[in-house]
Amino acid sequence: MKITVDTGSCVSSGQCVLLAPETFDQNEDDGTVVLLSAEPSAGEEDAVRQAELTCPAAAIRLAGS
Amino acid sequence: MTTTEETPRLPFDRANALEIAPDYEVLRRRAPVTRVLTPAGDPAWLVTSYEAAKEVFRDRRFGRSHPAPEQASRISYAAVQDGPSGDFENEEREHKRMRRMLAPAFSAPRMRALGDHIAELTDRCLDDLQAARDANPGEPVDLTDFLAFPLPVLVICELLGVPYADREHFRGLSERIALMNGGEDAQAAMAEFMAYMTKLADAKRADPQADVISDMVAVQADDPTFTDEDLARMGAGLLFAGHETTSTRIAMGTLFLLSDPSRRDRFAADPEGQVDQTVEEILRLTATSGTGLLRYAHEDVEIAGTRIARGDAVLISSDSANRDASVFTDPDEFDPGRTPNVHLAFGTGAHVCIGANLARTELRTVFPKLFRRFPGLRLTVGIDEIPVRVNRVAGGVDRVPVEW
Q1: Burial label, B174 (beta-carbon count in 10 A; 0-12, 13-18, 19+)
Q2: Mean pLDDT in residue range A30-38
Q3: How far from the centroid of its chain's Cα atoms is residue B252's Cα?
Q4: A62 touching B, CB under 8 A?
């Protein structure tokens, strides 16, 4: 699984960070998404999928299975 | 539905606190978007399907302002979600400024850091619940008085920098601004609420603290277009939303878990392992508002085959969208094992609830603590005997009488 994020469309909701804290973080200044790891650990893959679906700005993209 | 077949009028009647009105499903089966009358009697579009709700939430051609506010459909005679708000020309700029200002304070890392403190506050609330029980053994205790109301208030007060000692004052104001038929009194309460926030902002200006009102005051010092009135309205809105909504979710979540003893026992057997998904299911099923969230079309838009004209009011029913059978199997069933559970309880798109991380952090803390401490908690009345507050913008219930 390969993750990309679009910081331009991110609305800083931070919901991805609460769901998958090892993969996503938030910029301290404006709250936009920071990708900690483009390839999530096996334990966080489900959470990352949920984050992709939950993202209010559709700013998270997943490629591969 | 209380009016003619052609134009149903909101709010619809529901059987009890845990259900939503059957009218939503009837309407959704006919079309994802329906012409309705608001509680104030004005025309609006009601969005009942999940896909259409998501589409409207994410479409920037809908906003909270109106091109000609005096002609806009009114929703109710409350002082929140009652009609257009903000300036049509500058809405997007002002909204971005607001999000940029508040996003760091409500970020997930900040909420995680607040987690331990929320846990301590929860323990204190549960001590008070036990003390109330000990003071009157054999009598039911109202969970709203000792947990559902005070906990979110304690947390939002600290976050915003509002004195907890003022809670009865702003509780009263919050109730008055959200009464659907409040009229002049709702407006008077809103004016009082804003005056209260203005006074608080003055105090923060003189003596800034590590809190959101101080952050807002600091932003204002660099941005003269962010007026005292903007600040007061935003502060009042945050204080209102920060306690009313979470309070309702704690009360309703408890009702969901207690209304079926096997459901309670299953959760109490492993609260920490089940809480994240249980909270999502509580969020999905909790119906709060009888109207849905308000938007106005900023230009002519077609949604799911329906043409919505510039200026038309659109009410997005997350309550209905969250029970759309095309997305959620057995949508009326409480199923904490549901995955994925991509509900619209916080909305989505640019206006998504800024307090979502705060709410989730509070709810994920409360339920394990409540059921670790009181695994045999039970309701002392049937679910049908708990009245729903239909006349309030944030909905909710008046009481949750329990014993153990």
Answers
A1: buried
A2: 95
A3: 12
A4: no
Q: How far from B107 is each of A13, B269, B368, CA to CA, in Å?
A: 7, 31, 23
For chain A, give the longest Cα–Cα distance: 33
Cα angle B190, B193, B199; round to 5: 140
* Two tokens, residue A37: 């790891």
Tell me the average pLDDT across A42-51. Answer: 93
Residues 6+ apart with CB under 8 A from B201: B213, B216, B217, B228, B231, B232, B235
Query: Which pLDDT score is estimated for B393?
Result: 87
Nearest residue, CB atoms, A30 vs list B104, B339, B348:
B104
Q: Do A18 and B361 touch (CB under 8 A)?
A: yes
- pLDDT tens by residue, B127-164: 999 999 999 999 999 999 999 999 999 999 999 999 99
B61 CB burial (10 A radius; 0-12, 13-18, 19+): middle
**Nearest residue of chain A to residue B360 (CA atoms):** A18
CA B382 – CA B401 distance, rounded (Å): 10
- Token pair in block for residue B174: 């919050």
DSSP labels, B38-89: -TTS-EEEEE-SHHHHHHHHH-TTEESS-SSGGGSPP--SSSSSSS--S-TT
For position B391, what pLDDT does the model report? 87
Cα dihedral B165, B167, B168, B171, rounded to 10, equals 170
**What is the reported pTM?**
0.96
Kindly provide the ipTM of the predicted complex, given to two decimals.
Answer: 0.94
Kindly tell me if the per-residue pLDDT of A65 is higher than 80. no
Q: Which segments of chain B have a pLDDT < 50?
A: 3
Confidence at residue B1, expressed as pLDDT on a 0 to 100 scale:
52
* Degrees, nearest 5: CA angle B96-B214-B155: 90
Q: Please give the Cα distance from B132 to A33 (Å, whole number).
A: 44
Contact between B345 and B245 under an 8 Å Cβ cutoff? The reply is no
**Per-residue burial over B182-200, b = 16 or more CB atoms within 10 Å of its CB, e = otherwise:** beeebbebbebbbebbeeb
Give yes or no for a cis peptide into A40 (omega within 30° of 0).
no
When scoring A6, A13, A34 by the number of chain B Cβ atoms within 10 A, the one with the most, hence best to mutate, is A13
CA B306 to chain centre: 28
- Which residues in chain B have Cβ-Cβ distances shorter than 8 Å to A17? 107-109, 357
Which pLDDT value is given to residue B344?
97
Residues of B in contact with A54 (CB under 8 A): 342
- Give the whole-angstrom CA distance, residue B31 versus residue B53: 12
